[in-house]
Model the fold of this input.
Amino acid sequence: MRAKDGIRLGIHASISGELAHALREAAELGCQTVQLFSRNPRGWEARALARAEVWTFRRERERLGLDPVIIHAPYLINLAAVDPAVRERSVGAFRQEIRRAIRLGADYLVVHPGSARGCALEEGIRACARAIRRAVRGMRMGALRLLLENTAGQGHQIGWRFEHLAALLEELADVPIGVCVDTAHAFAAGYDLVTETGLAQMLAEIRTTVGMERVHVLHLNDTRVPRGGRVDRHWHVGEGHIGAEAFRRIVSGALFPARSFILETPRRSLQDDRRNLARVRAWVASAASV
Ligand SMILES: [Zn+2]
Ligand SMILES: [Zn+2]
Done:
């Protein structure tokens, strides 16, 4: 029912206090889907999930009708690392993250492909594929699917061109894995999403590389970085370099069959999320009425 039900809109919600807090926050904002961290995203150590916490999370998700539930992996994980210590730590942490996502009954686990400092891009891609293969080894994934997110191409990041993601998908043909497209990252990486022809060109590239059917989630973020700036700076939708007109096209109907949109825009209070969500809803409504 997920894809046929129209747009499912959500935010990256806060887990302050307990994980189910994120679900309640998203529901309070009128969201149909949600993304969250399963733990502090900036540290290596994760506190163990208590059985009651898992149970509450699953029950609340059901009660609030949130679907899909998306977990974003911690930022320290670097699956493309050539340094053996970082690589081992990253594989271990990612494996643990997969386990947490399965226990919580999440649908997707989003991860950045990583940074290949000190080696060629192709080598970084191969290292990332190997790391993911090791992280899922022997794991019963159930309904969970991993999603590789396109990056802004900052520093030595890999995954900022869709062909990098396609190469990873190809190496991981037997792993349940797809793609999450972040609009701010794509723009910073040089894709021209702003003009109609630029967007059409990017979509054509997605079709011929990863394949549109592998794109399960869109991160709708504007950016303060000019096109090709290769830096990751999310901004309120419609107020950055991508702009309202481009977003109206992006959310309109047939372009992306993936109908789960997540906002990862800055928030000082829930008011910021309310404003960004209202904008997206208005764009969807105006696109639907054309
Ligand atoms: Zn991300
Ligand atoms: Zn993102």
About this structure: The chain has one domain: 8-288. The first strand starts at residue 8 and ends at 12. Residues 84-104 form the longest helix (21 residues). The mean pLDDT is 94.
